[in-house]
Write a structure and sequence with these properties.
single chain; alpha/beta; Spore Coat Polysaccharide Biosynthesis Protein SpsA, Chain A; 7-stranded mixed β-sheet; 9 strands; disordered N terminus
């Protein structure tokens, strides 16, 4: 169910996880965000200080390879890319001055303005996102796909939810790593958005996507909507 919109003044931030393997793949996503998102600042979380592509002034990289929340050998640290996704649960710590943040996978394209997200009434919610249709029906509750998630960092900090999720990820094994952990810890505190905000194979069909999410399907880089932003 949608919450009412209310108007606030805050910096609009988008963050993408992209290890060095995905440095080139993330660029269409970034270009689409510049063109359509209304974001003030865009961050790319990566695993190196050396990013090969020239970036506009409002796009920055942040090397999270030295993060100390998750170490090799911990239950959900599975490869060189996974820990960057794990850091999603620590965004409130990584961006201590941000109240809200839009987290997107590298294989997404923003096709329409999504600045209205920052005007959602999120007071009672940890995040807003789009449910995966099959899993949500099976669980009989919304199960949010983390290819797109709009986080209320202010409430996450207030309730120390980030500490709880970091603890869980370091001591419990999850099949879908941080996605399972976030869903487990936010039951009843999720604002459900329409499928247009995460148009993918997992969501219900929609005619006019605001955000495409290709879920790393084979050949997704060659799709017309992706090529448009290369």
């Amino acid at each position: 169910m949608w919450a009412l919109f209310y108007f606030v003044s805050m910096e609009k931030i988008i963050v993408y996880p992209a290890s060095r393997v995905f440095h080139n793949d993330v660029m269409p996503a970034v270009h689409s965000a510049i063109a359509n998102s209304g974001a003030d600042t865009i961050w790319i979380m990566t695993d190196t200080e050396d990013f090969p592509n020239q970036l506009p002034d409002n796009v920055h990289t942040i090397d999270v390879s030295k993060q100390e929340w998750f170490k090799p050998g911990s239950p959900n640290y599975r490869n060189e890319y996974s820990f960057i996704c794990l850091v999603r649960v620590a965004l409130a710590k990584l961006f201590p001055d941000a109240d809200r943040i839009l987290s997107l996978d590298a294989d997404t394209i923003i096709e329409q303005d999504v600045s209205e997200l920052w005007n959602l009434d999120m007071q009672d919610y940890y995040l807003a996102g789009v449910p995966e249709a099959l899993l949500s029906n099976r669980l009989r509750r919304p199960y949010i796909n983390m290819g797109m998630a709009f986080f209320n960092l202010e409430k996450i900090r207030e309730d120390h939810l980030d500490d709880k999720m970091i603890e869980d990820l370091n001591h419990k094994w999850y099949q879908w790593v941080e996605q399972d952990c976030i869903n487990e810890n936010t039951v009843g505190k999720v604002l459900v958005l329409g499928p247009e905000y995460n148009a993918s194979q997992f969501s219900d069909p929609c005619d006019y996507p605001k955000i495409w999410h290709f879920a790393y399907t084979f050949g997704w880089q060659n799709k017309e909507v992706v090529q448009k932003y290369k």
